[in-house]
Write a structure and sequence with these properties.
GO molecular function, one term: acyltransferase activity, transferring groups other than amino-acyl groups
InterPro entries: Acyl_CoA_acyltransferase (IPR016181), GNAT_dom (IPR000182), P-loop_NTPase (IPR027417)
Protein name: N-acetyltransferase domain-containing protein
Structural class: alpha/beta
Oligomer: single chain
Radius of gyration: 21 Å
CATH superfamily of the largest domain: P-loop containing nucleotide triphosphate hydrolases
CATH architecture of the largest domain: 3-Layer(aba) Sandwich
CATH class of the largest domain: Alpha Beta
Number of strands: 18
Low-confidence stretches: 1-6
Domain N-acetyltransferase: 195-344
Pfam families: Acetyltransf_1
Amino acid sequence: MFAEDACGQSSGSGCLAGPWPAPRPLEGVKSNKRPVFEIRGAEFTCAGGANEASGISLCLSSRIAAIGEAGRAAVAILLGEAGSGAGEVWRHDALGVVHLAPKALAGGRCLSGGYLAAIEVALQERPQVVVLDEALPDGDAEWAKAFHKTLCSEALRSFHGAVVVAVADETRALAPVCSQSWVGHGVRVRQEPYLEVIEDALDEASSAADLLEEALSYDYCNLAWWVDAARAKNQKVTLFASRGVDGKRTLRGFLCHHVKEGQAELHIRFIFVPKELRGSGLGARVVRWVIATANRMPQSECRWISLKAADASLVPWYEKFGFTDMTCGQCDDEDEVWMELPNDSIVVGNEE
């Protein structure tokens, strides 16, 4: 997982120390709010299945986090690496997109300065859109450092074109950069406000007092019990929030979880989404965040993800994420159902 404390560090590399080259002008685009790329009800393939996307849009002021496989599929269309079936994809005829990723920059990596120097060369094309790719499956430690530094640089934030950051999951480090996200909900990919993730909200340094106060205010769910239990057992409470146009944060999800000591198992204790937001896909985003978090842990630390479905009716929903009912269906409807998912770690050299 990319380090949150990398942000704010200075660098002498040209692509970070000074502003990026201004994008080339686009004919007919006089405002940075005017769309330069749109996906309008297009169909495409993602993770071996049929998916559809609509309402996906980029303008020159966009700051987008493309989350997971679904977000990456939309990025592939933007890059021209993948087509779409029925529906419509529109882009400005002269739109220039630069892909900052290990494979895309391989030719310039041999330059003195490595990836950061290669980024500087790539930006001389003066693109209107920059795609910064975490490329986590590549397992490239040098690129991981370059990615961190670029993501947290003032040069990226002050760029006068659009920025799309392709990542495996939502983290707090992206919150200062991205205001929107491309994220999957079932078979649909949508553009939504970016979720800020406060991974350890019980840590006083997390500055999550406002969100904890909101969580404790819900009278139809006793979240105070889960907060107290997490404190007593040294477990984690992770909060998910979005910001309004006034900058105020609003709680979108609550997660209690912990790693079972000596068992290499990440256990989900409780997931909560406010009533008015249920059915919007937020619960799925929380579950996918947990899975992505486990994927970034070595097998020696996490071999399994486990949970107890509150009742049998929730089992099919969790099965969509790959969880297996370990009771083989031998539970009454009102019983909690133990479920497990093997952790597909992407950490290189993760065997004990």
